[in-house]
Amino acid sequence: MANPWLALDLGADPAERIRQVGRAHEQFCSGGLSLSGDQQPPQIRSVVADSWKRSASALPGADGTPPIDLSDGELEEYRAAHPLARVLPIFRDLLGGLAEDGDNLMAVCDAYGRLLWVEGAGSMLRGAEQMNFVPGARWDEAHAGTNAPGTALAIDHSLQIFATEHFSRSVQRWTCAAAPIHDPGTGRLLGAIDVTGGDHLANPHSLALVRATALAAEAYLGSQLTPHTAAGRVAALGRNEAMLTFGGSRQRLGRRHSELLVLLLEHPEGRTGEELGFDLYGEDVSPVTVRAELSRLRRTLGPELVESRPYRLRAELDSDFRTVTRLLERGRVAEALEEYAGPLLPGSDAPGISRLRRLVDGQLRAAVLATRDWSLMRTWLHQPWGADDLEMWEAYARQLPHGSPARPLAVNRVRQLATEYGLATFPQRARN
């Protein structure tokens, strides 16, 4: 396929592709197809196969319905404060015509896959309600399986998902195209813009349109930025490979270079090769290996960014993990939690990175607990890194208002985790 992000090749028969992919989907869900090596059928795009595997590991099956994460006043308050609210007129101007013609929906989600706005004709909205494609519902892959906005967030790239390419069977009569949207100042993922409709959307124009809409939104947000003294920005939270924005371009770094850059950010005064080696490898390190890695890093980033003796950054770079800690220092816990995209370089086992990761996570978690704000606790618990946090679940259950429909669910989760962790009795304090 010439473009892996497009659902159909030029001249492909949509009906035949639906049948082919549908058969492969049923075989995969029944365990008869592994999608690895020679077992991946040629009609299954790699981006779809990878998403099916992620979805299958996160969901109990292909017949579930995405949960409602935000509703009523809570939803209104959340999306009014969200950065994408400022570009909603751009979305409506560029995509509103598609939504108003009765054949499509326009949807906007945040970085967690929560739908903030879903707009279109009444008949389309009613059809979408049957699969919980409604404001407040959680449409990331972990809760909804393969779908355009959720998968666009997962891979940080625009794409189409066509009919039976969706993991959930209830969504397979729809086709969608989505593009991620970033904060132009920090590179942080803000959410995604999506167009959902019928098979007619499986064409290059719909993908180009949502991508152009995302770029227009980013350009507008960039025009509203106040001047900042930092020369660049590093995003390293919730990703194994850091993203460096510097000199007007964005660059994804390899794992080892990501670790080195984060360590240099943490030590602006500079580090010797021996100190960096210990932070990367512990005591089992060869000086030659460290020098080679640092030499490759300097070639990658350029001498204008990294200098030696000691190794340090020439330019002032900001970072997402430093933004989180600065906000915490100012007592702005809700903003820090919103900025937090996940653990720092979660795939790294370098001692220096592990220490810094624990420090950032521990500061944020402690601050959330200290607020006694059940809505902030819920945000923490609804993320992969917080789903099994027994102490947070206990605090959340205590802070929920009596009579809240979420309280029995929280208490039950406390019981489950207490049993899994081998605690002899259910913590009494979570009942009170």
Automatic annotation (TrEMBL):
- Annotated GO MF terms: DNA binding
Q: Give a GO biological-process term.
A: phosphorelay signal transduction system
OmpR/PhoB-type domain ranges (all copies): 248-313
The superkingdom listed in its UniProt entry is Bacteria
InterPro entries (UniProt xref):
GAF, GAF-like_dom_sf, OmpR/PhoB-type_DNA-bd
One matching Pfam family is GAF
Keyword list, A-Z: DNA-binding
**The name this protein goes by in its record:** Transcriptional regulator
Q: State the organism of origin.
A: Paractinoplanes tereljensis
